[in-house]
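Me: I keep going back and forth on a fold encoding question. No explanation is needed for now; the record alone will do.

Assistant:
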Amino acid sequence: PLRTARLLTLGLAWCFAVISGSIGLNALIKSNQQKSHLRKLGAPATVDIDTHDIFDSGVVATVASALIAVLISIFVLGAYIPRTKSLSSQPRTLRWQALTLSLVWLMLFGSMIPYMVFFVNRQASVKAFIGTTQLPDSLVQGVEKASGQTGVYKDIHYLKLSAILPWFCPSIHTHCHRNALRCVLTNSQACSGYSREPYSPAYFSGPVDD
């Protein structure tokens, strides 16, 4: 039962990791397309668009989501491949899997905190130049509004999705980690000769005689 619950939880975590990674990749593509569109609108002026703050944290979050999906794929496949099936249920393997996922989850969590700060409080820095002369910000903002574009992060729809869905991964990861620890404890008891039931009389009386 614990193995089934663990695999189901890993499968759910894999789904959210794939979705989060896909949304993050889509946001990066949409961002580049929007920048190209604004630069064309500003012709013949040279338009400088700076989004390095939210772009950098978004890239890290996307990479972390992709890593989670890849790791879970390896763990789940290892549980069904004949050569690695027995190894995948060993306490040492389960502890290593839990530790690896925890580190990648911390990477995702650490990138989402600054992402949310930038998403809520900041906007893209857009500057236009003709030669070496910078055009007024009011003129740049007027062009943005006339074209239906905005540099405010929280008003951009594809950034909204990237700010919401990755937060489902921590809660699912908690369940994965808990199930992995339960599997470790259960398998450790079985290997040392104890009953698998932690509250059975045999658990308190010592090893089970063969």
Summary: Helices lie at 2-41, 52-78, 82-88, 91-121, 137-146, 157-164, 168-191, 201-205. Strands lie at 46-50, 125-130, 133-134. Confidence is low (pLDDT under 50) at residues 188-210. The first strand starts at residue 46 and ends at 50.
